[in-house]
Design a protein that fits this description.
Layout lengths: L2 E6 L6 H7 L16 E6 L1 E8 L4 E7 L13 H7 L11 E8 L10 H11 L3 E5 L5 E3 L1 H4 L7 E3 H16 L11 H4 L8 E3 L8 H4 L4 E8 L14 E2 H12 L3 H9 L1 E2 L27 H5 L4 E2 L12 H6 L1 H5 L3 E3 L5 E3 L9
Parallel strand pairs: 1-10, 3-12, 11-13
Antiparallel strand pairs: 1-5, 2-5, 2-7, 3-4, 6-10, 8-9, 14-15
Protein name: Gamma-glutamylcyclotransferase AIG2-like domain-containing protein
């Protein structure tokens, strides 16, 4: 029997938002559920503001490179090097973090995966549902630990944290890690007191061979991605808050990667100067515009007091506004962090 998952990369990261569509999807985010949502990183995809709804712009994803182009392994390395001088070798692939939402099995008496999928299809009516290549999926242990790659911590504490992560998210899934000898799990110093945490990339070969695993992703239809977000179809803060709520329920580091890995926050914001999605503002080529000039074309409004997003949570947004705003910061290659709030229009 096939096991189905849906990759949530926007509002579906939030358990409360998923539950509005189907109560069976609320697993995770601190909820008492047997099957929590599983934090992952999806390689070769980017997340961007490119879906034009009835009144606002939603998040979408785009395969990189686009279907029919070169495979990611064939991208001209010289071109990538020129645009990624500060990045390490073999880290040129785009990616976006999100969660795998397990669907109920078909023998569930209350509902089955077909019923839930139909409900999700109705919710994501501007999108088509596609299957994900399981080889594009990797674990995100590094951001679940809420530490940087080079941080050194006590190896006993580290092992305990790893065990907790495994137990909470991965142990009963196709992403579970085989048991390994202790010396392979930790790289201790001579005194056996500390460990250097390294980013964990999961080899998903076992999952690739498993035909009973099916992961779905909602990709925006082209007819909804022709327009850039603008004052008629703005980014809504009430929608951003729902996505951030889900991210923060996982970890601060996960939230940071979510924000950094989302493109189209403002005119000209694109992926590594290599990909310029047609859905990003037509004003994107003028990188010399100051914030005031950009605000003339600004497409992001703070609607917390009068939320326009249909699945918004006004009480949560207002109560946690400072906390949420603190995470609306972009990191650059030179380790500088820039607040995105200057691009948001405040209510008059």
């Amino acid at each position: 029997m096939a096991k189905h998952y849906v990759f949530g990369y926007g509002s579906l990261i939030c358990a409360e938002s998923r539950a509005v569509t189907a109560s069976a999807l609320k697993g995770g985010d601190g909820c008492d559920a047997a099957a929590p949502a599983i934090p992952i990183r999806l390689r070769n995809w980017i997340r961007l503001w490119n879906v034009c709804g009835q009144k606002n712009t939603f998040l979408g994803v785009q395969r990189f490179p686009p279907t029919g182009g070169k495979g990611s392994e064939e991208i001209d390395r010289k071109e990538m090097d020129n645009n990624n001088k500060n990045k390490k070798k073999n880290k040129y692939y785009p990616s976006c973090v999100g969660v795998l939402v397990p669907l109920p099995s078909s023998n569930n008496g209350d509902c089955d995966n077909n019923e839930v999928l139909f409900a999700l299809d109705r919710r994501e009516k501007c999108y088509d549902r596609h299957r994900v290549d399981l080889n594009d999926i990797e674990r995100v242990d590094n951001v679940l630990l809420d530490t940087d790659d080079a941080v050194v911590v006590d190896h006993i504490k580290h092992e305990r944290m790893q065990e907790e992560i495994e137990e909470r998210y991965y142990t009963n899934t196709f992403l579970r890690r085989p048991r390994r000898p202790r010396q392979q799990l930790v790289d201790c110093d001579n005194n056996n007191e500390s460990i250097n945490i390294k980013k964990d990339t999961y080899n998903n070969s076992n999952a690739s061979a498993n035909n009973e695993i099916c992961v779905w992703i909602y990709v925006p239809r082209k007819c909804y991605t022709k327009m850039a977000s603008n004052t008629k179809y703005p980014i809504l803060q009430s929608y951003v808050d729902i996505a951030l709520r889900g991210c923060l329920s996982i970890s601060k580091s996960f939230t940071k990667e979510f924000v950094d890995g989302t493109y189209g926050w403002y005119p000209g914001h694109q992926y590594n100067d290599v990909l310029v999605p047609s859905s990003i503002s037509s004003h994107s080529n003028d990188n010399n515009n100051n914030n005031e000039d950009n605000k003339k074309h600004c497409c992001w409004i703070n609607d917390r007091h009068n939320p326009l997003y249909v699945r918004s949570d006004k009480e949560f947004s207002l109560k946690n506004s400072d906390r949420l705003d603190a995470h609306l910061v972009l990191s650059s290659n030179d380790s500088k962090r820039t607040s995105l709030l200057s691009y948001r229009i405040e209510p008059r």
